[in-house]
Amino acid sequence: MTVLNTQISCFDTTWNPAVGCSKISEGCDNCYAEAIARRFFGGFEVRLHPERLTETRKFKPLTGPDGFRVPRRVFVNSMGDLWHQEIPDRFIDDVFGAIARHPHTVFVCLTKRAGRMLAYGRRRWKAGVPENIWLGVTAENDAVHGRIDALRRLKAAAGPFTAYVNAEPLLGPISRHDYTDIDWVGVGGEAGARARPCAPDWVRRVIASAHDAGAAVWFKSWGRWENNPNWARARGRTKKARKQDLIARGLELLPEEHGGATLDGALVQELPPGFARLRDRLRRAG
To answer: Top-level CATH class of 3-221+261-285?
Structure first.
């Protein structure tokens, strides 16, 4: 799991200079990364891979639908948490040192350890967070809403950057999330054999709250077909037949996602303003 094209719809590539993690909140209970690591690598202990720091050279721009170059969006440490307590600051420094050599690539760093990210960010980015580094927290329910505030506190200390909240897996109705000064919100249901339910109204509420605060939203997927509000309308005796029916009738526009990703007849796949700024800068660079 070093550099891979990814099936996570809001990213183009994953990069894992470190792997492994430990559970910290409810969203970790059915961790996909842990399942993959235990199946293929025999464990999920934290391991550093300094040899992968040079892999950033592979992150070339992509070609957009209009034929022009667009920045690649890289999910950093999809198989762990960059701010896990077993990863030393000096290694995190090396990760961001490697990132610094590629200003035209977007690197998205997501954590559940918001306190450590905040403390690290205050020390490192006294002159501001580079525009191509997007920092985010996972906030899967109301119990961890405080993680979101760490992003605002870092903005207050370091200046503006693209702040990302990932409300996935969404595990309940949200009433305490405050998306003020958040630039991008991701939301989706849980996937996998033990996936927990995700109600359509939970998703709608996150999207509405994010839009009210001025944030862009990317709805990733329902996680499982039983969460999809169109599933009850699907015709057929088998799951395959029912999926094909939804596709044929135009009720599901992205069936390759877990459980589909259509909400009220549309896809919600918005990018924050920071992406357009980087795209325009890349095109001016020639």
So the answer is: alpha beta
